Amino acid sequence: MKNDSPVSAVYGKDIESALTKEYRQYLAGRLMMEQKHLSHIEDDIEVGISHYEGFTADKPHMHPVATEHGYVLEGALRLRLLDGTKEEYEFRKGDFFVLQKGVPYATKNAAGTRILFIKSPGGNDKTVVEVDSETTLWLSDWDAL
Q1: Do residues 132 and 59 touch, judged by C-beta distance below 8 A?
Q2: How is 116-143 classified by DSSP, letter by letter?
Q3: What domains are there in the chain, each with its CATH number?
Q4: If we measure between CA atoms, which residue out of 111, 101, 92 comes closest to residue 53?
């Protein structure tokens, strides 16, 4: 949505409706592909919401250009660094975290988790990374390893 008004908005009822159709919705950014269920605000940063109804593991990846910020709105996620340390973090409702650009990581999300994410600068810089068998097992279940 391109708007010459000084205020742009995406309304909650529209966000909620779109999240029933697809688990991730972008609220703002310069998207590479058109979003089917929600009009977003064109902007230089990328903002969105991911809603994981059931347990989900995202594809391990990194952002070579963007720093990613996350705020857990509901539920919990576990994050594992893939930089050789395999350091792990758990974030729950109300927690805020920042992932620096260039850091490879894997995440798994408990059922019912919602995350507000912000990437700066915006743009589709997600780069999928290969993982070892231990991380594949870790991603297979909330309580694995």
Answers
A1: no
A2: EEEEES-S---EE----HHHHHHHTSTT
A3: 12-139 (2.60.120.10)
A4: 111
The candidate with the shortest Cα–Cα distance to 30, out of 55, 48, 14, is: 48
Residue type, 3: N
- Using DSSP, state whether 16 is helix, strand or coil: helix
Q: Three-state SS for 47?
A: strand
Other CB atoms within a 10 A radius of the CB of residue 135 amount to 19
- What is the reported pTM? 0.91
C-alpha to C-alpha distance for 98 and 49, rounded to whole angstroms = 15
DSSP 84: S
pLDDT tier, 2 (very low <50, low <70, confident <90, very high otherwise): low
- How much is the CA Rg of the chain, to the nearest whole Å? 16
Encode pLDDT of 9-36 as tens digits.
999 999 999 999 999 999 999 888 889 9
Which residue in this structure is represented by tokens 């991603």?
Answer: 139
The closest of 55, 35, 45, 38 to 107, measured between CA atoms, is 55
